[in-house]
Write a structure and sequence with these properties.
Number of domains of chain B: 3
Order of helices and strands of chain B: HHHHHHEEEEEEEEHEEHHHH
Number of helices of chain B: 11
Radius of gyration of chain A: 22 Å
CATH class of the largest domain in chain B: Mainly Alpha
Number of domains of chain A: 3
Number of strands of chain A: 10
Strand order of the largest sheet of chain B: 1-4-5-8
Helix content of chain A: 40-55%
CATH architecture of the largest domain in chain B: Up-down Bundle
Oligomer: heterotetramer
Structural class of chain A: alpha+beta
Distance between the termini of chain B: 18 Å
Shape of chain B: globular
CATH architecture of the largest domain in chain A: Up-down Bundle
CATH superfamily of the largest domain in chain A: Butyryl-CoA Dehydrogenase, subunit A, domain 3
CATH topology of the largest domain in chain A: Butyryl-CoA Dehydrogenase, subunit A, domain 3
Largest interface: A-B, 49 and 45 residues
Radius of gyration of chain B: 21 Å
Number of helices of chain A: 13
CATH class of the largest domain in chain A: Mainly Alpha
Chain lengths: 400, 384, 400, 384
């Protein structure tokens, strides 16, 4: 056992760190530091830079553009990226539908879709949740009825993140209404330009419009867009959700945010002294840092164990990553609220911030903090709520 | 010791709750918010008709002579409905200053207007550099013949963009963070040299940054005596905190109610989610927080009107700590138990979450008040 | 609404405060301040003092020795007592079996038992819990079989607090084995000197022997010792447990302990400054004080509402008192651990402390602190565990 | 980065766990504890035979040359079995001082005895007034010809009542709380002027208060150079904390296991209590704490042997904070989920709870280490 990075890993870390710092356009970085959403254009620009370097999809099989890096190196790569901070690659493509396609898709699907995912020529979104099926995903109702060489899809998806930008959506649809819950579900790839698709944005409590409802009204989908076998979609979805859980700890994001908290607390004065000099505040931050370091080590333990696990299975301990990762993300936004104080109050829509026609109200970094606090409530809800994660651990690990 | 409402208080509670239930639903509120001032003039007039705007003022000043309990009742009802109107700004804050420190002329000039709704006022007592310390006043007022010239910047003035008059704190002597040397002035919001930058707040209400540049006011604009406004400001702030606590309790009640409703109707895995014991226990945690907050709000409301400034400050800070902590816990559980829909503007719960988060910030967050309480040796001492 | 004490209530508070301070033997008070258990002799002494004053059972009906005080005055009385601090009257007699006897007992039982409870001539203990029936009390198995004018009792009780001193035990016993759970239970008063009773002490993790197992081996109990009707014992038990919950917030005990924490923290030096002068520590204590004040007000609200409730019914909100009261008691013992630091470690059996043959190890107040921390874990378990209280609130108040 | 145990490490783990499983059950432990020294000489000899007592010492000093991982493995196993023997006192603490600072003669005189179990030693580095600050040394050592005379009081010396030799910290120069001017001396526990007041600790182990009155030692008793012991003491303390964390993880594992067992077998309301979702989620909370503690212990074990004193201190303090917090949470849940039986000495769970509570206190509680970590700017900085 040796938990220090090897020489080789340290050299790799320096290499990616240097590359990220040099290759990322400064304006994109500044926008993230300021707490703004990354725009579509910015993400495409960044993905193309990674793609040119050959690093757009490091965890994919080498034949599809992957790098063959060890899990630890992949982790280093992601950590360094989020600490640059640079935008994360679009997960719906590279972490979700991409791996489903190269694992369960046919050759035609692989050659058609994978390159365009890696280069972000195609923007993907996820069509899993429905209004009636949240934690109980398998109760979904969107129907796909076979009609010749096409499926006819009717129904509604919700919480579809960034659907407004999307070229494609991957969907779970019910193809056998008579089968038991999980058994009649298929995994379909649907062109967002298909007639009959309507996207309705949902405003979230932070004021943003990240998520959408997507309605399907007699949408015709060629059968060639079915992944794997009909009615076996639940298996592919489980595989996908497992992959989702691994990256969900967001250790790098939280580290970067703690640096930011310390930087801002050094600028804030409370009762005549710098906030960062108050023992109570420093200790509050340090307590979060401890939990984050423990999470990082747990994350690394899970990753190191990955090589030994059967392909496509998940360490149930990864549920810890979700629970603790989301708690820590929420704790960091609470600390930001502590730092900013009263100037968390003004509400400035993000498009106005970008326009910068008016002088900022309070410190120029203040306006994104309350929205971040509100928005971060979601991380314990999405991707399998923390309650569901606890049920998983109770059953799969504790045998209760 | 008596926890019962009097007959009049029960009537007050019933009538304000009925009005809001009828006319302040979630959709109606959305429309009021979209208007010019960000609130409903029509509702404002109805509050006036019900006597709510006259409530805390003495009868001889044209008011109704209500006390702490009456304010608590009204603020709690306003919290339940998440109202947008400047009751807190005009009646509690500016009205509080007038009640405690206004002279006869000032009272008779202003209180009738506040009480009948024709005049709204705001209290501009915070500054950009001051964080939660209202004695951190850099705005200056210099003698100018009989009157004064005021220069400076005031921050986060609640409803400052729509009110007719302002009460402004300014330094007439002393150093930047001295408690002595602060004075209060009545300033016309449209006076020369007053510029107001209004904006919405995270909770859908309104506030303004206000700059005063060589603003001239007469001798009659000074409230109380020169340089000794701090006891007035701190007393009004304490009463304001008690009122905010009551508003928060109203919000909490509604958040708890909405969450229970959701637990009882939302179905997953073939059953209502309210049947899951882990979620039941968390709904209980919310309930416990609600009741503890209610208890502390009663306590603070009662002591906030007392004359012992230290006892008052202790009780008020303790209540604000409780409310701030409960806001975190109740907010967190309410959103989490609602799941995805709790994250949207389309459900009421998120609006309550945002308002209670802002209430935590208004007039000092839980950290600020915990520090203040600890510096005053806490609630339990050898002699108490 | 007026939450301030009236003039009359304030005068009453001063009266009881003065009386307690003057009447309580100083050695008894010092023992409590030092964190030691009150001995049987001390409690008897103190109870006789109260009894002579006519204040031994203030909440009882006036005809049985009560005072006729309002619930608020009763509360003031108890609060002042615990803040003196003076020993609490023996709950098993005055709060538990006493009210059951005057509410459900017959005249013979009332005149035989009540006076001796009030004067602590009879020391009572409680025989409810059994090894197999903890939270699920109604599953109890101890049997009582009618044989002429006697019941023959066989079985085992546990967690019987201070049974080693007891003259009498009140027991729930199963008299109808065929009835559904709650329906076949009776409430029996049993003389501890009866042949066939064995008491076995259980050492608890604080090192003390407060609790015991009590074994019944063909113990013969006259039928005149049955309270109320046969097989109706569950109703009397519910009544008793409800009464138990009202006093369980222990606001006065926690107040007194917080005073003690502040006093000790003023004596402890950490890194060259007094612990009480450290902002972090002061704020930690203040946070507990806030929760305690909220609990006190909730307690008073429940008490004030009592007059309006149907006799013998409980405000389900009283479950809050149990939950928060126990959490706060535990929080205060954690603060004591913070204060004492390393000298929490030495273990000194209480009889040795009393003997005081050896010099104390560390500060002379240190040795009782870790035991108090350990012992106080029990308060969220006994009297209906906090989980059971949450179930009660969920069902009875929230309708879940 | 590599989380796997080597073949030798796996063998070590298996053999020590097997030994304890066979001979260190709950009842056997009770008997060992009732003996004169409060532990089992027989087990002590078996540890020696297994090579455990020689583990951390260099091969050239008669040891086995084990590293941080080996110590972690053994301490975790000892935690699971809740052992009573002076391994931590003699091998980790006193042995640690000798390893890092002993000269050739001192090593060859003492290490073989420690390694074969014939000699036990204790480290007397804390004082009554010092709380957790080991640099707070009032005990003095004055030159006396070639040798020294030591006077003072040492506090909470683990196993100090039964060991053969002590290592004592004493001030040879400087003020009471200076880091400079502290020296370490080897003192025979039976030397003239040494009086030991032994007592049991809350967790069933032993410690002593030790008074030194004009205790004379020779020049060869001084470890390292005069006045510069602080880096040695602080390094040994950091390694000691890492070892304690591993012991705590062993305890946590067992507490979690015992609680699961209880949840699966205890029946109430006609079903096992482990079927109640609220209790399931709390068992999960315990599990999460256990795994987080395990992670932090690995981290601290690895960094505790590094040469960068600040990095080491940060990692060790962070781990101790995690362990202290987890001890509270796991302890609380374990007792609560056991219900009444968890409160008794007759069930194992309470003994683990008491030991982990004491581990939180040993070498600084969570508050102390959180403060220390915060003063060192935490774990995450601009450059890290």
């Amino acid at each position: 056992m040796d938990l220090r990075f090897t020489e080789d890993e340290l050299a790799f870390r320096d290499e990616v760190r240097t590359f990220f710092r040099e290759a990322l356009p400064p304006s994109i970085r500044e926008n993230i530091v300021a707490g703004h959403h990354t725009s579509k254009e910015e993400l495409v620009t960044w993905t193309r830079i990674l793609h040119d370097k050959g690093w757009a999809v490091p965890h994919w099989p080498v034949e599809h553009g992957g790098t063959g890096w060890s899990p630890i190196k992949q982790y280093i790569y992601l950590e360094e990226m989020s600490q640059t901070p640079a935008p994360a690659p679009l997960a719906f493509g590279v972490n979700m539908v991409g791996p489903v396609i190269y694992t369960f898709g046919n050759e035609a699907q692989k050659s058609r879709f994978l390159p365009r995912i890696a280069s972000l020529e195609d923007w993907w979104c996820q069509g899993f949740s429905e209004p009636g099926s949240g934690s109980d995903l398998a109760s979904l109702k969107t129907r796909a009825v076979r009609d010749g060489d096409e499926y006819v899809v009717n129904g509604q998806k919700t919480w579809t993140t960034l659907a407004q930008y999307a070229d494609w959506i991957f969907c779970l649809v019910r193809t056998d209404p008579d089968a038991r819950k999980q058994s009649g579900i298929s995994f379909l790839l649907i062109d967002m330009k298909s007639p009959g698709i309507t996207v309705r944005p949902i405003q979230t409590i932070d004021g943003g419009v990240e998520v959408n409802e997507v309605f399907f009204d007699d949408v015709r989908v060629p059968v060639e867009n079915l992944v794997g076998e009909e009615n076996k979609g639940w298996n592919y979805a489980k595989f996908l959700l497992g992959n989702e859980r691994v990256n969900i700890a967001r250790v790098g994001v939280s580290k970067e945010r703690i640096r930011r908290i310390k930087e801002l607390a050094a600028q804030q004065r409370v009762g005549g002294e710098r906030m960062i000099d108050q023992a109570e505040f420093r200790e509050k931050v340090a307590a979060v840092e401890v939990r984050l370091k423990a999470l990082e080590m747990t994350q690394l333990r899970v990753l190191a164990g990955e090589a030994k696990r059967e392909k496509g299975t998940q360490d149930p301990a990864s549920s810890i990553l979700k629970i603790k990762g989301s708690e820590i993300q929420q704790a960091t936004t609470e600390l930001l609220m502590d730092v900013v104080g009263p100037y968390a109050m003004p509400y400035i829509p993000e498009d106005e911030i970008d326009g910068r026609n008016e002088p900022s109200i309070g410190p120029d970094w203040a306006s994104t903090i309350a929205p971040a606090y509100f928005n971060t409530r979601k991380v314990s809800i999405y991707g399998g709520s923390n309650e569901i994660q606890k049920n998983i651990i109770a059953k799969a690990i504790l045998g209760l | 010791m008596d926890f019962d409402l009097s007959e009049e208080q029960t009537m007050l509670k019933d009538s304000v709750e009925r009005l809001l239930k009828d006319q302040y639903g979630f959709e109606a509120r959305g429309k009021y918010r979209a208007g010019d001032t960000g609130f409903s003039e029509k509702m404002w007039n109805q509050y006036a008709e019900l006597g709510l705007l006259a409530l805390p003022f003495a009868e001889e000043d044209g008011g109704i002579g209500g006390g702490a309990t009456e304010t608590m009742i009204v603020m709690e009802a306003f919290g339940k409905a998440l109202i947008l109107e400047p009751f807190f700004a005009s009646v509690i804050l500016a009205g509080g200053v007038l009640r405690h420190a206004g002279n006869g002329e000032q009272k008779s000039a202003l209180i009738p207007g506040i009480a009948d709704g024709s005049l709204t006022m705001a209290l501009a007592c915070a500054e950009p550099q001051g964080r939660y310390d209202l004695f951190d006043v850099e705005t200056s007022a210099r003698k100018n013949g009989d009157g004064w010239v005021i220069d400076g910047k005031k921050a986060l003035v609640l409803h400052g963009d729509s009110v007719g008059k302002l009460i402004v704190s300014a330094r007439t002597s002393g150093g930047a963070r001295d408690e002595d040397g602060i004075s209060l002035f009545i300033v016309d919001a449209g006076a020369d040299g007053v510029s107001r930058h209004g904006y919405p707040t995270q909770d859908g209400l309104r506030a303004a940054e206000i700059t005063l540049q060589s603003v001239k006011v007469g001798a009659d604009a000074l409230i109380g005596s020169e340089g000794s406004a701090w006891p007035v400001i701190s007393r009004v702030a304490d009463e304001a905190v008690a009122a905010l606590c009551a508003e928060a309790v109203g919000c909490f009640e509604k958040m708890h109610e909405l969450t229970l409703e959701y637990l009882k109707t939302r179905s997953q895995f073939g059953t209502t989610i309210g049947s899951f014991q882990a979620l039941q226990h968390r709904a209980v945690d919310m309930f416990v927080e609600l009741e503890q907050s209610r208890s502390m709000t009663m306590y603070a409301s009662m002591l906030a009107t007392g004359d012992d400034a230290v006892e008052r400050a202790r009780a008020v800070s303790a209540a604000k700590v409780q409310i701030g902590e409960s806001a975190k816990i109740i907010g967190r559980e309410a959103i989490q138990l609602h799941g995805g829909v709790g994250m949207t503007m389309e459900y009421a719960i998120g609006h309550y979450f945002k308002r209670t988060t802002m209430i935590d910030i208004l007039f000092g967050d839980a950290n600020h008040h915990l520090k203040r309480l600890a510096q005053m040796d806490g609630l339990i001492r050898e002699d108490a």
